[in-house]
Amino acid sequence: MIPSPLPGQPQLHYRDQSLYLEDCHLTDLARKHGTPLYVYSKGAMLDALAAYQRGFAGRRVQICYAMKANSSLAVLQLFARQGCGFDIVSGGELERVLAAGGDPAKVIFSGVGKTRAEMHQALQAGIGCFNVESEAELEVLSNVAASMGLRAPVSIRVNPNVDAKTHPYISTGLKGNKFGIAHEHTLATYQRAAQLPGLRVVGIDCHIGSQITEETPFMDALERMLDLVAAIEAAGIAIHHIDFGGGLGINYNGDTPPAADALWAKLLARLDARGYGDRQLMIEPGRSLVGNAGVCLTEVLYLKPGEQKNFCVVDAAMNDLPRPAMYQAYHAIVPLHQQPGAEGTLYDVVGPVCESGDWLGRDRQLAVAPGDQLAVLSAGAYCSAMGSTYNSRPRPAEVLVDGARAHLIRAREGVVELFRNERLVGG
Ligand SMILES: *Cc1c(COP(=O)(O)O)cnc(C)c1O
Predict the structure, then answer these.
(1) What's the domain range around 349?
(2) Is residue 52, in this structure, part of any structural domain at all?
(3) CB environment 139-166: b (16+ within 10 A), e (fewer)
(4) The pTM of the whole model exceeds 0.70
(5) What does the record list as GO biological process (predicted)?
(6) Which of 67, 210, 327 to mutate to test ligand 1, by most ligand atoms within 8 A of the CB atom?
């Protein structure tokens, strides 16, 4: 009945039937901080980063953590201290990087809808590169930079038209997606960028999707990118860095993505074979650095047997952990305290939000009673960061564990904070 070993999360294990993350007893943390509660393992994040660092040993590489996956300040601080840069998608994310002590020179700014104000803010902070996603954006960025007496460093995000074979909402490198410049228009766009007074071309960039569990899409994108680099440089425009984006998947439910170091050994061998092995490289991993470092703890409120379905109603909901509601995503759910020999019942694990889409897991075999606690696994990426306060539910607290030490890195939000900026109408 209990999945064993726990999918994807090596720092998570049972001792005497109790679930631990590193050396922290999760029931104790749930008792101390309440539920729902996010708990992250520092060791798991560092191990995930180390797999990339091993793959890149001896190369010129800047790892830019795609912080939208998990933008808690202490998580950013951890990666900044390891020398990481950040891939940002908004001015708000830039402010978080600066608040966490990140180096703006190692920031790259992605996204299809950067505003003039965000461009101004990023230029002022001195970020490393803008990954530009349209011709219109190139013109605006050039204007903003020129008005400040600057030249903005730019890469153009290429849409290489490869199928990442992932969920349609997280596939970004196909022709029908809103992202990037079509492969066949890339050269013309670079020629335009090279003419604009407020721009300085520094690199090329792609990002083909997320939760990619096969090698082939990465290999295909690499070949197409290098074809483009050759064509652009033949036109006299130097490409100083090549950015391969992020997208490497994690194990949620028996998924078997390639290991970061093994994948990069293959990609680097192709780069070498094609004569680009000495280039400055950049990557933008998000999920693969944090996804399997986190769990969301929740308490069982009620068991509700039904004719067709049994429901296990818990105190975490789609606002806290939106991936199942949003993409029918699977997260393993396990008890904080195992009951050996207990049969269990098949439940849909659902939250208190008034939407039928509010579920965390479907058809899960669980031996639980009200008051028991559960852990939703692989909840380090795109969970807390995507959370909302729908139904006036304040955001959960977050804890970062490091061995036997647990640091509260986000206090539970108060209800009053939710409507602090609202006003009653006078008179
Ligand atoms: C989201 C995103 C990433 C990170 O994707 P993961 O699948 O989390 O690794 C990288 N680059 C860009 C441009 C993104 O939008």
Answers:
(1) 12-41+291-418
(2) no
(3) bbbbebbeeeebbbbbbbbbbbbbebeb
(4) yes
(5) lysine biosynthetic process via diaminopimelate
(6) 210
Tokens of residue 72, six digits: 């808690």
277 and 296 belong to one structural domain: no
296 is catalytic: no
Instruction: Return the half-sphere exposure (C-beta side, CA atoms, 13 A cut-off) of residue 62.
Output: 22
- Residue 2 CA to ligand 1 centre (angstroms): 32
Does residue 80 fall inside a structural domain? no
Q: What is the pLDDT of residue 167?
A: 64
Pocket of ligand 1 (CB under 6 A): 66, 68-69, 87, 110, 207, 210, 245-248, 284-288
d(CA 276, CA 271): 5
Nearest-atom number in ligand 1 for the CA of 381 is 8
For residue 359, the domain's CATH number is 2.40.37.10
- pLDDT tens digits along 404-417: 999 999 999 999 99
Q: Which of 261, 285, 309 is the last residue of a domain?
A: 285
Residue 178 in tokens: 């809103």
Residue nearest to atom 10 of ligand 1 (CA): 246
Which of the following is catalytic: 129, 206, 354, 383? 354
Quote the pLDDT of residue 180.
Answer: 85
Q: Which residues in the chain show pLDDT less than 50?
A: 1-4
Residue 347 and residue 281 share a domain: no
